[in-house]
Design goal:
Elements lengths: L19 E5 L13 E5 L3 H7 L2 H5 L3 H9 L12 H16 L2 E8 L4 E8 L5 E2 L11 E4 L6 E4 L4 H18 L6 H9 E4 L5 H10 L2 H14 L2 E2 L2 E6 L4 E5 L12
Antiparallel strand pairs: 1-2, 3-4, 4-10, 5-9, 6-7, 7-8, 10-11
């Protein structure tokens, strides 16, 4: 039988046994069919570096999905069905154990009124766990503050995010403009019913017309309660100052030398 190409995400040399660790998921597995609360995640190896530096994978923004497919070993379902908060926790684990705890990004120093490079200690990031129990269908309830419409929603998965990215890009090309519809596309994936209505076309039409204060309130509620990683952190500037900032993933996240 022909061996897999070395760049294949499924390629694992038989003679190697990659070290791994057990990672607790921020969601505690409550939203998954198998209720798996912790998973086995292999450490990054020299072989994985060939993937991280593969021009095709980088150009097509496939690094995250490729790493999750390779490194998560006992999930029991497709990694694309992990909610975004759990995916982020795995990626930060891989980055921290693979390249170290320090990560540099531009931060805004309010005292100086300017941006400068800051260093974040990734080991200080904390998990944000789920504190509200879903219903029997894995959905959550929310009442819009102005219209009083009753919403049932879910959390976005990797599969949803992939669809949103593709649709947003396709719509901008089709309409020949740079107007992003990501906010609406995300709401359409999150909201499963409004006042008992579940038809996706009708839901889309309703979501397009809800007041902006209702839309913002719903999105903030989902963001506040969604399990994952608390991305609000303190960064240390070169001058030794501590600046509160928000962790962002830039090109150097898996390429620290850039």
């Amino acid at each position: 039988m022909e061996k897999n190409n070395i760049l294949s995400p499924n390629y694992v040399p038989e003679e190697l046994s990659t070290p791994y660790d057990i990672l607790e998921l921020p969601s505690q597995g409550i939203l998954y069919p198998n209720k798996k609360s912790s998973i086995k995640v292999e450490y990054l190896t020299a072989l994985d570096e060939t993937i991280l530096t593969s021009p095709n994978i980088i150009a097509n923004n496939k690094v995250i999905d490729t790493l999750l497919e390779r490194k998560v070993k006992d999930l029991g379902f497709d990694h694309l069905d992990l909610i975004e908060g759990d995916r982020t926790a795995i990626i930060i684990f891989l980055r921290t154990t693979g390249f170290g705890e320090e990560y540099n990004q531009l931060v805004f120093n309010s005292e100086k009124g300017e941006y400068e490079e800051g260093t974040i200690n990734l080991s200080e990031l904390s998990h944000k766990k789920l504190t509200v129990q879903p219903d029997e269908n894995g959905l959550f309830d929310y009442e819009l503050p102005l219209s009083k419409m009753k919403i049932k929603f879910k959390f976005i998965t990797g599969r949803d995010s992939k669809y949103i990215d593709e649709q947003d890009e396709e719509l901008m090309k089709r309409n020949n403009n740079d107007i992003s519809t990501r906010i609406l596309l995300k709401l359409e994936k999150q909201v499963m019913s409004i006042d008992g209505e579940t038809d996706k076309i009708k839901l889309s039409n309703i979501l397009k017309k809800i007041k902006i204060m209702d839309s913002r309130a719903l999105r903030k509620y989902i963001e506040d309660m969604e399990p994952g990683i608390n991305m609000s952190v303190n960064a240390r500037t070169r001058g030794g100052e501590s600046v509160t900032t928000f962790l962002t993933f830039n090109r150097s996240f898996f390429w620290p030398e850039l």
